[in-house]
Write a structure and sequence with these properties.
The complex is a heterodimer of chains A (995) and B (99).
Chain A lengths: L11 E10 L2 E7 L3 H7 L6 E2 L6 E2 L12 E5 L5 E6 L9 E5 L13 H4 L8 H4 L7 H13 L14 E13 L3 H12 L4 E4 L16 E2 L2 E2 H14 L3 E4 L2 E7 L3 E7 L14 E13 L3 E3 L12 E3 H11 L6 E6 L3 H11 L3 E7 L7 H8 L4 E2 L2 E7 L6 E8 L2 E9 L2 E5 L2 E3 L2 H5 L4 E4 L4 E4 L6 E3 L9 H15 L12 E2 L24 E3 L4 E2 H9 L5 H8 L12 H12 L3 H4 L13 H5 L16 H6 L3 E5 L2 E6 L7 H14 L1 E5 L4 E6 L3 H8 L11 E8 L5 E11 L2 E6 L4 H15 L6 E4 L4 E7 L3 H6 L2 E2 L12 E7 L2 E7 L7 E7 L3 H12 L4 E3 L2 H10 L34 H4 L10 E8 L11 E3 L10 E11 L4 E9 L8 E6 L2 E8 L14
Parallel strand pairs in A: 1-7, 8-9, 8-15, 9-12, 15-28, 17-24, 18-19, 18-24, 19-20, 34-45
Antiparallel strand pairs in A: 1-2, 3-4, 5-6, 5-7, 10-11, 10-29, 13-14, 14-15, 16-25, 21-22, 22-23, 26-27, 30-31, 32-33, 34-40, 35-38, 35-39, 36-37, 37-38, 40-44, 41-42, 42-43, 43-44, 46-49, 46-51, 47-48, 48-49, 50-51
Chain B lengths: L2 E4 L3 E4 L4 E5 L13 H9 L7 E7 L7 E7 L4 E7 L16
Antiparallel strand pairs in B: 1-2, 3-4, 4-5, 5-6
The chains are: A alpha+beta (995), B mainly beta (99).
Amino acid sequence: MSLRVPTGGRIDRQRPLRFTFDGAAYSGFAGDTLASALLANGVHLVGRSFKYHRPRGILTAGSEEPNALVAVSRDGARYTPNLRATQVELYDGLCATSQNRWPSLRRDLGRVNDWLSRFFPAGFYYKTFMWPRRAWKSLYEPVIRRAAGLGEAPSMPDPDRYAQRYAHCDVLIVGAGPTGIAAALAAADAGARVILCDEQPEFGGSLLGDGAARIDGAAALDWVRTALDALAQNPRVTLLARTTAFGYFPHNFLGLNERLTDHEASPEPGRPRERLWQVRARAVVLATGAIERPLVFPGNDRPGILLAGAAQTYLNRYGVRVGNRVVIVTAADAAYQAALDLQAAGVVVAAIADVRERPAGMLPEAARSAGIEIIPSATVLGTTGDLRVSRITLGRVLQGRLQAQRGVDCDAVLMSGGLTPSVHLFSQSRGRLEWSDALQAFVPGQSAENERSAGGCRGVYGLAEALADGAAAGAAAAPEPSPAVRRFTVAAPPRANDSHLGALPAGDSNPKDKAFVDWQHDVTAKDLALATREGFQSIEHVKRYTTTGMATDQGKTSNLNAMAIVAQKLEVPIPRVGHTTFRMPYTPVTFGSFAGISRGDLFDPVRTTPTHEWAAARGAVFENVGLWKRARYFPRAGEDMHAAVARECRAVRGACGIFDASTLGKIEVVGADSAEFMNRLYINNWTNLGPGRSRYGILCRDDGFIYDDGVVARLAADRFHVTTTTGGAPRVLAMMEDYRQTEWPELQVWLTSTTEQWSVIAVQGPRARVVLEALVEGIDISGSALPHMSVGRGSICGVPMMLFRVSFTGELGFEVNVPADHGAAVWEAIHAAGREHGMVEYGTETMHVLRAEKGYIIVGQDTDGTVTPEDAGLGWAIGKTKDDFVGKRSLARPSMQAANRKQLVGLRTRSAGQVLEEGAQVAEKPGQRPPMALIGHVTSSYASGTLGHSIALALVAGGRSRMGQTLYVPMPDGDLEVEVTSPVFYDPTGARIHG
Amino acid sequence: MLLIACPYCGKRPEIEFTHGGQAHLARPPKPGDLDDQQWTDFLYMRTNLKGIYAERWRHARGCGRFFNALRDTTTDHFLATYETGAPRPLPAGSPEDAP
């Protein structure tokens, strides 16, 4: 039997659509939501509740829906959980499933939680499952996670595209109900650039569901159409339907989520599914309306119990009767209009139970004249019907006593507790909320931004008043004054917007069933009372303890009732209880929308060196270093990393190797005061470094800890070429700029990043000079003419070159610096020339082994922000004669010189082949059990083919006084014995470097 | 996202800037003359106030310049931005300084 009325509504009866819900086939019409189409088919049961697995139906007709969460899937990858059926637009072939039930929606074994609910009171997580501790991870948490919760995450990557754009406007209006439309007309009249957005597919807001009123002599929806036509023709106005303003950020920056294809049966391939708008608005008008509040009474959550305004919307907008025989429970006049509309559509209104003592006025009188029974001072004692409400027990509370108790058969109950202004976005903008006694609600007070709230969201509920309020706000928000603010003539019956907060009175009765406050998180009035009995007084604490208002609906329907119940239990006025903080997003936003194009290859920029293609063609294995791709090793046929690295190391130590060091940060420090600048910043002395020479430099922060290191060459009296670690380049330049601009602006010095300008080709090994001799022009590269730590300028392969005599391997070494565009060609030329000398290309892994054999540190690996130059064994680098440098004063603190500071040492394992794990802890005594006394940790560890044993660097307390000591590295299967050694394992005298 | 008025470039979105901590803390010219407590105070102690805060920003993805700003930490609204080295436009403790 169809519950669809024959005519009326915003649906297209000529366009029937098929869809499935939990596998069952149904049909609806174009213009339906999934919720309205299900209701038209008599389906109220759509989900199971979060905690108790109680059967739940559709409660609302909008984005505030707490119950009707469904998953919609187009295919395996296009699967979206937790969608509100009240917002899902129907399309032909739509496939929806219910959530949080097993094995089926109608028979859900989780329901046992409801019967055992006295074991699951508020805060039960904190009270139970505490013992034994180990069982939490293995037993309790998995079980609880399976039993509770909402939908499941999709299991495949999201194949859809998501677009993002920025926009600016004079006036952004959120909400296109009567208030928002009036605001847009007024702002547009004043010539403003306007964006008007609304989360619904169709503009009109409350008028779509309650269209009896007349505006300017026309039917309300005709007025809406005329107004929208005018706005659509204005090139300065942008209308965004299906667009949720989900977040209000500082300085009038709002995030809008526009849904482009979710309502289409077959979206055009490649079209973005959603668009994220980041709007910077000169002024904002919030016209977000108000949400009808449920009433809190026992058994108020059965399928078939919904908000009166929702039932009216289903009838007037979608042509759907939510039942055939309804009982209305209300505290406000609005539900009477719903009763009259439903009765006119052939629904039997069995009774209107009004919690007010004397319902009077035009609407109650009209209901009375229509023959509907009205019960004043009414309350609800309970409901029956498992999968659908079938009976409601009403009563009257007079002088605190329950009277006239009686059951009324029905197939739907419609409730109305009055309106709650939607202040979410206002609150997100950090506007101050004020309690209104007259409205019994929090309303916007002082704005924090250039913002105006208008209409229902500030408690201006009447249609005429809301239109006027919207027009005034729109005109005031426009940057130019309006010629004349619009006025509207409205014909609509007056209604008393009374309301009820908190639980309905029970008189002297003692109802058994649960009275829900927060439908989505299954929080009852009793839970809130328990929280106050247990001592929680702040609403923020009650919220976290009971989880009220913390679900995905953020308590849109529940917050005010929860505050009222807490206030009543604490016997304080509601404003004293206060309100919780509203957070973005207003409704959930897909991750895809935030990610936009930043996924896959576009997730992050990729930096490649000039030899990248060459290395890739050689089968190099790359590693990510910051944004850089660096060749880690070059495996040959049959080699694993270990074998490749061992071969590359052998070649460098025995003949020579070639390595791309282009990723090193490079900063040119230039100017008359460049030496003074370097003296003040780096720990080293630069005054005595002559042009053409270089030095290993260390940069500390003013706290005295190593920040970066690198070779610094003095190219001329007023020019330094500073190299930094690969990852440290931006922060070193930022630190240099900070001191240059803010501490020492008097210095004549300029800084330029040249990282990308130079290709750096390291040629290292005993035969390095022989290889380069044949190629280098204009420089004598003999040991006497270009000694270790010197720089020459010349050319190579016809390309201008800076040649650094420098070594990060401990071997005779050069670094060829050529303009980056020539890097690949020069690299190939050197590689070709080196072939006859046994040269091999090597990667970062080999570089790491070679430098560790020499005890050269990597900042960030062997240091961690608590290591001083002295700790790292680099105290020799400090310019002792300097009065000051960044970090010097801190290094003079007594604790920085303590003998038991962690110092860099080498570790040798007792068994030569044992490679320690980097990060492993070091203990003084063997055989300890946790918690154990630890004195340091391993920072670098490798197998050294050259030495025939493993090597490790470690930071160990008082390490340098422990040479030769045996220490222990505790591992899960026992201690590993290690001997403390010098960090320099290879060529301790450094003879090889001078080649 | 904040809108920050770089004194050199004008209003730009926050993503172009990096925050530089409390403003008007000059590095002592002779750190060696300070005792440990004074040096520690300079190095680590910062005010974390509710109200109008003088702080440094750098237009890192723009002109690269450091500058100072007065920001109300309760609202995130900027009262002024000004060049490094210039005096604070609204002295701390002045009547407008109340949060």
